[in-house]
Write a structure and sequence with these properties.
The protein is of the alpha/beta class and 331 residues long. The protein is built from 11 helices and 12 strands. Helices cover 41% and strands 20% of the residues. The structure holds 1,4-dihydronicotinamide adenine dinucleotide (NAI) and magnesium ion (MG).
């Protein structure tokens, strides 16, 4: 048995967490769970976004399944996600976007995995007010962080028998910073002669992703472009409810859905738990439980393909719990 930390989040977080845990238990995932409330409600009640006990649990288990958390825009506390990524140096944000026949979109052949550098670039949050009408923001790119994310992307390509890694950058304008990222990419690409590699400028990539998404396989890119592009690839496959992700570092790993806390549907028990469930499958694969992850993935595919017990975001009328029960039945 492996103990993992679970943050229930807020908004739809507790509902989808419950559904996911019920599937994990039915699938006999060899996991023990330490549950914590985190987020806006926890902040209002106890003054901390993440209670100390929750941090301690993660520091002990090193594995976190995290539900979405509400973050105030333009004011209030710093994003809990950014805090977690920085505190535990979760340098790689890996977001697979794959078309699913249950979700009709104009792009049926998308299978793109984005490796987004997660700790630097403009997201270091260093902004300086120069005068009343001028603000400077600092972009940081280091060889160390670039090497880690780029090498991870190539290793993943080799392990999963993927064929190509594309570096996305703006080195024509940002000659030093993105230039460094690109030159590190070329060095590391040479270590992986069995994997094809190329590089493209980010604006061109946005156009090509909507014209010819099937020509992309693995993308590796600095933080800001990765944030934007992974949402774009999410849009291609047509549904936030189906997008898992993992954030990994050298010692810690955090698995979460790409979507947020969906306050507009919170409490209605109609949220789609699949993104968090697939994140849990990535967690199982990460700890070596590939068979159980595969069983859950097949059960989800069966339910999606049957098209009967779908949540409203996929055109059905099932409740979150009913969908989870259908997945359990398919197991
Ligand atoms: P959102 O992803 O929460 O919702 C966008 C739209 O997608 C809404 O209409 C929502 O109902 C729908 N949706 C999202 N997840 C769904 C699911 N599982 N099933 C069915 N429909 C779903 O994005 P929004 O509204 O921009 O953000 C809400 C809050 O979440 C904000 O406070 C934001 O900061 C936070 N957020 C947190 C994230 C995290 O904790 N990882 C990530 C993104 C946003
Ligand atoms: Mg984002």
């Amino acid at each position: 048995m492996k103990t993992i930390t679970v943050f229930k989040g807020d908004g739809i977080g507790p509902e989808i967490t419950e559904a996911v845990i019920s599937v994990l238990q039915a699938a006999k995932a060899p996991l023990d769970y330490e549950f914590f409330n985190v987020g806006a409600a926890e902040y209002e009640q106890h003054g901390a976004l993440i209670p100390d006990r929750a941090f301690s649990s993660f520091e002990k288990t090193h594995i976190l399944l995290k539900s979405p958390v509400t973050t105030p825009v333009g004011k209030g506390f710093r994003s809990l996600n950014v805090t977690l990524r920085n505190t535990y140096n979760l340098y790689a944000n890996i977001r697979p976007a794959k078309s699913n026949s249950a979700v009709p979109t104009p792009f049926p052949n998308v299978d793109i995995v984005t490796f987004r550098e997660n700790t630097e670039d403009l997201y270091v949050g260093i902004e300086e007010q120069i005068d009343a009408d001028t603000v400077h923001a600092t972009k940081i790119i280091t060889r160390k962080a670039s090497e880690k994310i780029i090498r991870d992307a190539f290793r993943y390509a080799r392990e999963r028998k993927r064929h190509k890694v594309t570096c996305v950058h703006k080195a024509n304008i940002l000659k030093l910073s993105d230039g460094l990222f690109l030159s590190v990419f070329k060095e590391i690409a040479a270590e992986f002669p069995d994997i094809k590699s190329d590089d493209k400028i980010v604006d061109n990539v946005c156009m090509q992703l909507v014209m010819r998404p099937e020509t992309f396989d693995i993308i590796v890119t600095p933080n800001l472009y990765g944030d934007i592009i992974s949402d774009l690839t999410s849009g291609l496959i047509g549904g936030l409810g189906l997008l898992p992700s993992m954030n990994i570092g050298e010692n810690y790993a955090m698995f979460e859905a790409v979507h947020g806390s969906a306050p507009d549907i919170a409490g209605k028990h109609i949220a789609n738990p699949t993104a968090l469930l697939w994140s849990a499958c990535m967690l199982l694969e990460y700890i070596g439980e590939k068979t159980i992850a595969g069983n859950i993935r097949r059960a989800v595919d069966t339910v999606l393909a049957a098209g009967i017990t779908l949540t409203p975001d996929l055109g059905g009328s099932a409740k979150t719990e009913e969908y989870a029960q259908a997945v359990i039945a398919a197991l």
